[in-house]
Write a structure and sequence with these properties.
Elements (H helix, E strand, L loop, with lengths): L3 E4 L3 H17 L9 H16 L3 H4 L1 E4 L5 E7 L4 E6 L6 H15 L1 E3 L3 E9 L3 H9 L3 E2 L5 E7 L14 E4 L6 H12 L14 H4 L10 E5 L5 E10 L4 E9 L8 H16 L3 E6 L2 H9 L4 E11 L1
Parallel strand pairs: 4-6, 12-13
Antiparallel strand pairs: 1-2, 2-3, 3-4, 5-6, 6-14, 7-14, 8-13, 8-14, 9-10, 10-11, 11-12
Helix pairs in contact: 4-5
Length: 309
């Protein structure tokens, strides 16, 4: 079937992509062979809006049938990195090669010491894409693979509680954004100078994402009132799937059971909303052990492939 390639045009395409990702996710038995909806929302409203600031009209490419049905989407995550989201009914080697060619033209970054470079992702269980990447000169990157973990919500939820004096609750109003932003900075930049901290205004964009729910944005509060840890869950009632993104603990409050207590509370909340599956991704062994202890023992492995020329 002939497909028509075009660029992202306006916000109507955002809603078209969101529906496409839902459909593809269900057709793939809720496995993340293309981006799930929560990841798109998180990237669109936080990662891109606050960090990379890609022009969407220049950075997103769509392939459609002649009657306008979306068959594939190509987009970046960060600089020099691209993702191929393909509807299984339209997946062919020819389409994937065309998408790779566009990615190499549009998303490769120039490195003065050597070359141009691009990272693409392929699942360990996807021989078709791996073969095409090999033929085009890619090799597996040294980047840590992504463990796309999942748990059946019918399984019992561990009853973890935080250390004495700590409480778990929902994030409050905008007046708590500074504390929420600060604990995020400390959790993900433990070795960075605090002078690099850039404030808290970015959190408003997170809360603009269509899937965002304040009742699923949880914090652990220390005895002195500071935020010590956090998790945000995203719940899509159309697919009955929830996901954690992000999960973090301030270095001064680690090893107090805060991450487990927050995740347990989050799991109970999405179960009560109707979730039948929950997902979380990990890269490090430490994070993987935490998530496995919460029942996220099944996973798919997504691997980075790099090409330099």
């Amino acid at each position: 079937m002939k497909l028509i390639q075009r660029k992202y045009r306006h916000d109507n395409d955002q809603w078209k992509i969101r529906q496409f990702l839902r459909e593809v996710f269900l057709l793939n038995n809720r496995r993340e062979f293309s981006w799930p909806l929560y990841r798109w929302d998180y990237w669109r409203w936080h990662v891109n809006e606050n960090i990379f600031k890609f022009n969407l009209e220049a950075a997103i490419f769509l392939w459609e049938t002649t009657d306008g049905k979306l068959a594939a989407v190509l987009h970046p995550d960060g600089a020099g990195e691209a993702f191929l989201d393909v509807h299984p009914d339209f997946r062919t080697p020819e389409l994937e090669v065309e998408m790779m060619s566009v990615a190499e033209t549009q998303f490769a970054t120039t490195h003065t010491e050597c070359c141009q470079r691009l990272i693409l992702w392929a699942h360990a269980s996807d021989p078709l894409r791996q073969d095409l990447l090999t033929r085009r000169g890619y090799s597996k990157s040294k980047w840590l693979p992504e463990y796309q973990r999942r748990r059946d919500m019918r399984e019992p939820i561990p009853d973890f509680q935080p250390a004495e004096g700590y409480t778990v609750r929902t994030l409050g109003d905008d007046s708590e954004h500074p504390k929420r932003s600060w604990v995020s900075w400390k959790a993900f930049h433990p070795d960075e100078s605090d002078e690099k901290y850039q404030g808290w205004d970015w959190y408003r964009n997170v809360q603009r994402a269509p899937l965002y729910r304040r009742d699923l944005d949880l914090v652990a509060v220390a005895p002195n009132g500071d935020f010590a840890a956090f998790v945000t869950l995203w719940y899509d009632d159309a697919t009955r799937t929830a996901a954690f993104e992000p999960v973090g603990t301030h270095p001064d409050h680690q090893r107090k059971g805060l991450g487990k207590a927050l995740m347990a509370e989050g799991l109970r909340r999405v179960r009560d909303l109707g979730a039948t599956l929950c997902a979380v991704s990990s890269y490090s062994e430490k994070a993987g052990n935490l998530y496995a202890s919460m029942g996220f023992v099944e996973y798919d492995l997504s691997e980075a492939w790099v090409k330099e020329w």
